[in-house]
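Annex B. Sample input.
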Amino acid sequence: MPLGSRVPQDKINLRLILVSGKTKEYLFSPSESAGDISQFVFDNWPQEWEEEAVAKAEILRLIYQGRFLHGNVTLSALGLPTGKTAVMHLVPRESLPQPSSQDDLHRKKTSSSRCCGLCACCIL
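Annex B, continued. Sample output.
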């Protein structure tokens, strides 16, 4: 049942979407991590998701804004506002993917074009 406008001001309503398109909403505190959320969902697996059940919580991964979240990342670290609904995908995956070659190429370009590491030099 969607919580809509009834989200408590100290919680974040997390709408989780499976690959199948099925959704479920849960309330979490901003201090809860991706690992905490995965464990909670595993322990309280919805009956309507029975076909997508997994063997262990450790393979459940959250995706937010196109990025896999590591287990220790908290909702507050993502900047999610309390009292609102956020949407994430929940997928079964044994391990996190390696950074894409696009990310590697960007890192190489930005780091090689700087002569002093993290700072940028400007010759006047």
